[in-house]
Amino acid sequence: MQDGQTGKYLIQPGGYKAFIPVALPPIKPIKYSEKLRNILSEADRALSRLDGVVTVLPNSDLFIAMYVKKEALLSSQIEGTQASLEGVLRFEANLEPEEDINEVKEVINYIKALNYGIARLSELPISNRLIKEIHKILIQGNRGTSKIPGEFRKIQNWIGLPGAALSDAIFVPPPPEKVPELISELEKFIHQKDEIPPLVKIALIHAQFETIHPFLDGNGRVGRLLITFYLYCKKILSHPLLYLSVYLKKNRSRYYDLLMEIREQDRWEEWLKFFLEGIKEVSEEAIILAKEIIILKEKLLKTLFLNKISSIYAVEFLNLLFIKPIITSTDIVKNLNTSKETANQLIKKFEKINIIREISGKKRYKKYIFLDYINIIKRGTEL
Predict the structure, then answer these.
(1) Sign of dihedral through CA atoms 88, 89, 93, 99?
(2) pTM score > 0.85 for this model?
(3) SS3 of 49, please?
(4) Which residues pair with 9 in a beta bridge?
(5) pLDDT tens readout for residues 78-107
(6) How far is the C-alpha of 358 from the C-alpha of 288, rounded, in Å?
(7) DSSP secondary structure, 197-210, as one string
(8) In 3D, which of 348, 342, 322 has the Cα closest to residue 330?
(9) DSSP-derived secondary structure letter, 328
(10) Whose CA is closest to 293, among 372, 359, 355?
(11) What span, in angstroms and rounded, lies between the C-alpha atoms of 98 and 89?
(12) How far apart are the first and last CA of the chain?
């Protein structure tokens, strides 16, 4: 371990060394090599294409709502949560998930935190206050409840293998008394007017937040949420639709290694290349996903037509399935403003042509799943 221009290790009263990062921007200016400039340009273009594709979706809100669930699941899985997309959907539909209910609730909390943060940005900028509010929603009522929800830590934390003691830590973040000052400096940098490209700036912000590690639990999830919040509030995205968790889950070791290389070797450029490659890759995958959903809907509309199931209620029911992929006849009556008899007829017809199937195993109050859609969305979330 050595001190560099990104910070220094200081011996603490307990005899261990904690890392104190210097405030952003980096002391040594970022070198925009040709490769880095090209990756930045490609990431910008991919992000613009994603924003454009979403606007032509039949109902972008439906896609975003499901994509948020996917991100919540992936971000939680990075932290060790063993839940599935179907489990989350079953929980929301008041069905018993196969996984641990507490782990499913962690994913639900992430969804609540993301949606809350996006709504809150209309009245409050990215700030210490917002970060604390998000954190409280994220870990309240779950295994993190004992880790002071919504408050910066008052004791030392560390990063290491499961069960590792402080003396065996891979990385020790700043001591607790330094956290308020460091987070305030980060907040100033977030709002500082400069010439740093937005995608580069959020890469710097994310790395600094993870280095400060201001909470006892949930730092990774909050740090990933900050990426989306920043791009959304800066109007880089008109919809909250860029989530790096699938990329970080796939490249977890490289992600952690690069953060350490920033701290110990000032290797910001390597980190930026990795981060921007992630934005490009995730944007392109989301575009493919959106197009697959458009194709699926067109295919199913054609199937309805060929099977002479082309009433206005049938089309509206298909639209509803993209909002509620686990559904009951009561949902149909309520959302389509139709009779129970019409709802049951629709269910029978959709079941017959394999658009939905029954999953509750009950004689009454049956629930049905729209599996083709879920299978598209859940790609990459398999445990």
Answers:
(1) negative
(2) yes
(3) helix
(4) 19
(5) 888 888 888 898 888 888 888 888 899 999
(6) 29
(7) -HHHHHHHHHHHHH
(8) 342
(9) -
(10) 372
(11) 11
(12) 35
